[in-house]
Amino acid sequence: DVIPHRKGKQEDSAEAQERSGERIFASLVWDELTTGIRGGFMKVIIIGTSAAALACAERLRKESDAEITMIGREKVNPYFRPSLSHMILTDEVDPKFFLKEADFYKEKNINLVLESEVKSIDPEKKVIALQDKELAYDKLVLAVGSENFVPPIAGVDKEGIFNLKYLSDVEAINEYAKDKKNITIVGGGLLGIEAAWAFYKAGKKVTILEFFDRLMARQLCPEASQRVEDELRKIGIDVLTGKSTKEIQGDEAVKQIVLESGEVIPTDVLFFSVGVRPNVGLAKEAGLTVDRGIVVDQNMLTSNGDIYAIGDCSQIGPMVPGIWPLALQTGRAAADHILGKVQTAPDSNPPIAILKALDIGVYSAGDITKQDDAILKNDGENLKLFIFENNKLTGVNLIGDTKLSSKVPKWIKEGASKEMVESAL
Question: How confident is the model over 349-366, as a mean pLDDT?
Fold first, then answer.
C-alpha cells in the first residue's frame, strides 16, 4: 500500500508523495536485507527471555516476516521480574506477572524455546550450540541479562542462603523459609528493603545489614534514607548500617552470622541483595569485546556486525542499562537496526526507583550525587528534595506525598531551572 490514507482535510500532494516514498523505501530495504538469506527469510535468534528480548521480538514481528526464535533457560514464559520480591511467602500473584498471554507467541509466530541453554557461539559459521544441536542465524541478539553478586564470605555455601533473580529462586525461598524465624537481609537497597518487607508481613523477625552508612545510598539523600530507616524500625525491623559480614556459621545450614565488628546475629535464612554483574561469559568466549558488560554501539551492535547485545548484559559507553524502561528501549533499538532503520542512541530517561514497601511513598529519580544547589522541604511527614547542577534539575527525592512524580522525569530531561521548580511547588 503506497497510497497515503486520507481522512478529513486532504493532505498536501508533496507530503503524500514523501510518505509514499518512505513506504516504498522501507519495503526495498527489507527486500535487500532478506535477499539471499538462508531459507528465504532472515533468521533472528534471541538468546534470553527477558523484557528486552521480548521487546526486540515484538518490534521485529510487527515490521517483518523474519524467523524469530527466543531461547531461555527458565521453564516459564517471560515475566515481570520486579514482581518477584513481592511473591516471597505469599500466595498472591500479580495478574500481570507474565508479560504476554500464553498463546501470544504462537499467534505471532515467535518460536519460544524454554529450558534450553546456549553453550557456545561460532561467529564465523553463524551458529549457536545447544545441549543437543546447533542452530544457524543471520542475526543474533544476546539478551543474557545479569547475575546477582554473592560475596565470597566464609560459609557462603551452606543451606539457607539465597538471592533473588528468577522465579525458581522465589519458589526455593518460600519452601525453605516457611517454618523459619530469623531472616537476615544483606543489602539495604531497593530489593533488600522490599524483601525485608515481604518477610516481615509473613511474621518473620527481620534484620537488614547495610555496608554503607545509610539505606538506599545511591538513590536517597541522607534525610530521605533516615526517614526510610525510621519507618523500618517503627515496625520492628532491625537496621544495622556500616556493617559487613565476616563469617556464616552453622553445620550444614546457616544458624548465625558473625560481623566484622564481632557482633553475632541469629540467622535461619540469609538473603543477599548486594548488586549484579552482567553476563559476559558467552560473548567473551565468542571473541566479542567486553568490559563490565558486552560493549555495543548506539545501535546495540557488538564488535561483530551480526551480533547485538541488549538489556542488562550490554554496555553503551560507560553505562550498563540495568533498569527496566531502558532495557525495553535497547531491545527495540536492536530490532530497528536489524530492520535497516536509521538509529539514534536509546533515549536516556532518568533512572527511577520506587520503593514498594512500608506504608509511605518513596520515589527517587535522576542522579542525587552531583549538585551545587538544592531545594529541600521536610515537614517530618513529607520530604521533597530537588537537586541542581548548573541550575539544571538532575535528581529528585519524594517521601510521603509523591504526586509530583508524574512531572519529574520530564523536568529532569528538560533540565528544569531552580526558579521553574520553585514556582511549581
Answer: 92
Residues paired with 183 in a beta bridge: 206, 269
Q: Which residue is associated with the grid cell 556500616?
A: 242
d(C-alpha 196, C-alpha 341), whole Å: 45
Local confidence band at 345 (pLDDT 50, 70, 90 cut-offs): low
For residue 282, give the C-alpha cell.
558467552
SS3 of 225-246:
HHHHHHHHHHCCCEEEECCCEE
Side-by-side strand order, sheet with 307-309: 110-113, 67-71, 43-47, 139-142, 307-309
List helix spans (H) across 303-394: 324-338
Amino acid symbol at 83: S
pLDDT at residue 31 greater than cutoff 70: no
Q: In angstroms, rounded to a whole number, what is the distance separating the alpha carbons of residues 157 and 169? A: 16
The answer to whether 142 and 307 are in contact (CB under 8 A) is yes
Q: Are 137 and 229 in contact (CB under 8 A)?
A: no
What tens digit of pLDDT does each residue of 246-296 get?
999 999 999 999 999 999 999 999 999 999 999 999 999 999 999 999 999
| CA trace torsion 147, 193, 258, 204 (10° rounding) | -110
Q: CA Rg, the chain, in Å?
A: 24
Amino acid at 49: T
Consecutive H or E run containing 142:
strand 139-142
Q: Which residues of 349-377 are buried (b: 16+ CB within 10 A; e: fewer)?
A: bbbbbbbebbebbbbbbbbbeeeeeeeee
Q: Considering only 24-33, 150-159, 319-328, 329-338, which range has the smallest mean pLDDT? A: 24-33
Q: How far apart (Å, rounded) are the C-alpha atoms in residues 314 and 293?
A: 5
Q: Are 161 and 197 in contact (CB under 8 A)?
A: no
Q: Of 197, 200, 193, 196, nearest to 224 (Cα)?
A: 193
CA-CA distance, 381 to 400, in Å (whole number)? 6
Contact 290, 283 (CB under 8 A): yes
- pTM value is 0.87
